[in-house]
Structure formats: structure tokens, C-alpha cells
Hints:
Helix content: 40-55%
Largest sheet: 3 strands, antiparallel
Amino acid sequence: MDREVDGQRMTPAQRDDLLTQKALFEDQYPNFQDSLRGKVVGFAQGRRYAGNTVHEVLDTVKREHPGSMLYFEPIGFDII
């Protein structure tokens, strides 16, 4: 992510926010890894979001927190 900041594709504040959301994901992962298997799970503004697709999660976050950083991962499957 530092390369993204260095290339001015991300601000330092955005990087820090994304790292915070990632830490929340990792901290809470044991609590939802089984119940949300097969879903895309992300964190934005300290809240967890889940959906069937990346776009579903992105659309919800864009609506509820415009301009916020979102950290997400698929649970139990690969996106590609």
C-alpha cells in the first residue's frame, strides 16, 4: 500500500483507514468464518458488510458511507 501512496493513487489517510478495516476483519474473522461461508465480507467505517457478490457489498458501502475505504475478502472461495 505504501507504493499506492508513493504513486499518489491513495492518500496516507486512506491507507491507514484500509489497514484499520483489515485489522477489524482479521480480528473478527473467527466469529463469522463459518456463518458467512460463501459470502463476500468487508469492513468499512468499522462495520461489517456481507453479500453474495463484491458489487453487492460495494453498492451498500457506497450508499451508506460514500468515499469510505472498504476492505473485503471472499469467505471460503476465490473471487476469480
